[in-house]
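sorry for the late reply, my laptop died twice this morning and i had to redo everyting from scratch. anyway the thing you sent over, i finally got around to it. pasting the sequence first so we're on the same page, its 358 residues, then the predicted structure underneath. double check i copied it right bc i was rushing
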Amino acid sequence: MTVGGPTALSEHPNTQMTPGLLPLDNSCPLNIAGVTYGADLTSCKLDAIYQFGDSLSDTGNSIVEIPQAYHARLPYGETIGKATGRVSDGLLMIDYIDFSVAGVTALPKETLMKLNFSLGFSNSSLEVQLESMKELLSTLCNSTKDCQEKLKSSLFIVGIGGNDFGRAFQRGDSVYEINKTIVPLVVGAIEDSIQKIINFGARRIVVTGSYPMGCSPAYLTMFSNTSTTKDSFGCLKDYNDIFASHGDGLKIVVEKARKENPNITIVFSDLYNALFSVIKDRSTLGLNSYQNACCGTGGEYNVTLGQLDKMCGAKDIPVCPNPKEYLFWDEWHFTHQANKALSDLLIEEMLPGLQCTS
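ok and here's the structure:
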């Protein structure tokens, strides 16, 4: 059970277009019940964003490692007219705000093996991504002070963990066991990564929680028949508690890192609650279908798990005619439209903490 694929570190220069990346149009912000959809980061004057994460932020690194992946070809990317390796019909949240790779875990390979977890299809992990960043910086600067100067207008984002919890479920762990053992391990790995990124010379860091995957077509397909409680939106509350605990742990880590590094700007980005805000505002946002996958087949949620020939991207698998009305593109990943709405919320939340000046 993998949420996308490995993540790699990607760099998005603000001064030029990335291939396959569309310009943002935030000229008409939308305000719903006090929530603004359409904020942007222009006041931060960033010259680069470095993203560490998984398939939610992978802009194409995984298809370098696995060229035969379904998201290397249409219908993935159909909304922007080209398959770019993004696991969506179009752009991702990071495009609106990467060493990111689909399927990547926060925990290193050695820890996964000790836990008897599936290694998945990627050789990458957060540790591997950090090492890639270290190697890149060794070619760009001569010392920590030099790196600090060169990175002073850069933003670093860490968002990872969903694949680790998925592999725990794959092993047969209960919600209680994952909350007790795996969540602290993942939070600890991310805490270590924050300090390593600071040691690189980073001045601004955003740490992102996981979205509530108990709302995804994948989890709804796998676990709806178990004795789990559903919330008012029809999401699996017991399973979402894992992702809520993950976010709570990261908030504590971020606050600790701030106190230990008062000259570094460190912000927590709450993807968990952002998704619930989008679900709550779904009618106004035009997201009329928020539980079914747009691309897929079978079952109550348009998903058949564990069969490659039934996955989005396989031959003759249907795609909905109106992706912009769907929250989920496939069993795990958001549509172009949903990624835009989520990024608007996260940017609005981040801006005060990033202390950008207009």
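The CA atoms of residues 212 and 240 lie 5 Å apart.
thats about all i looked at so far, will dig more tmrw
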